[in-house]
Write a structure and sequence with these properties.
Chloramphenicol Acetyltransferase, 2 domains, 14 helices, alpha+beta
Amino acid sequence: MSEQKTSTFGICGRMFTIAHNLGLYRSVAVTGIYSSSLQRADLEQRLDASLQAAIREHPALCYGLSDQDAKDDSNTFFSFNEVHRDDVIEVIDCSSETSSEGFSESAADSVLRQRLERAHTSLWPVGKPAWRMIVVHHPVGKPLLVEAARGRPETTLEERRFDIAFVFHHAIADGLSGLAFQNAIMKHFSLLSGAPAEVKWPLVVDWDVPLPNLVEERIDLNNPQRSEGKEPPKHANQPAWPGDTISLPPGNGYRARVHMAIVPPETLGSSLKFCKSQGITLTGYLHGLICVFLSREAPEAPGFRLVTPYSLRQFTKTSGQDIAFHAASMAMYVPDSDLAAIRKTKPQSLEEREHVVGIAKDFSASMVREVAAASYIDELRDVPDGTELRKSALELLGKRRTKSYEISNLGVGQSLATDLDDKSMVLRRLMMTQSGSVTGHAFSVNCASVKGGPLTLSITWMNGVVENQLIESLSSYLKQSMERLVTGE
């Protein structure tokens, strides 16, 4: 067996274990929606073998929360000598679950959504891996997503949908790591020729498990190396919507919420073409749409503060296929004067669209300034020790919320099978979700797409912070705004 290692997972581990211990933030998930022509028993055996290969490939998957706290109130993680199947794989047959809420989703999506809500509501137990793979099997005959199937050969009745949700403690991995996990499963699945030999559990960790790949070990926090004359943008504490009083739900009252919207490939294609013609990004375009929507839904809003994460892997020289936390975030404020100008325009008018594009261009310019000023260095360097971090987090309770929403774009995934006739594992859709933040943004819009397939917008929030109707209306507005680009409206 390997030597047992311990680690706090560094600065990012400190931030997220404190938030987790206080119940302020719980987990992230990247989910792949797949189809397969295999029988279920063969599919499960191959997935087990692929997961074991992924565990061997990625050291972060060998760590879990220790019952020993670090000296500064954060948690210590330890590596395992054995990985037990029941600790890392949860299998769900959707025919045994029911949907009770009235979101306009397919029955299969509703099962997935409800299971993700439960996962994001749960806290991570000590002594267990700080991640889990949830596999949802859908019966043969469930319709595969039409939007995802366009441009591909027509599906057959033998194909079944199954979902793989990689749910993880944010201390061990960032959003791109979730895509790396899905890629690892697909890669090892495609390397299996025929049925694998019997997969034995528990998996004995008989190899040397390296210590985690920490961002502060890849960036010199004492030497910002920012361009001459560049300073990090200053974000004053201007009031922002929703401005509610932050409070921790009593007892077990915390509940994570998830809403999904699927944007068809042709709508996504028209949106990307429009963004390219305007010199903006899809993320910036969605940010502009959200601002327009909220400015009308919340006419008294004093301003909106956006938070968006971005990857540091280009600076840490870390592969996009690694599982690690190498990310930072940017804040951007949209003042009341901009919102007032939006409200004076007619809905769906060219003037309104000009405001959307203007906000999107401001978003891109802010990101350029953020990176040029190496603001991520200050962000990481200024994280206090666990004791102070815990104190400052608790001090937010009872104060006004100053962050409106987060928007993140995971990027594009694709099936890794080289044979187009191989239908054993085909990626149809990709999505990212996370637990709602108690002290941070009111809701999060998470984007992910599949090459040649649809874009999935998942909106996540803590139950009670915003009304469900607002989320549903926002989802419809975003889809309809993008659809109007297809028709040229």
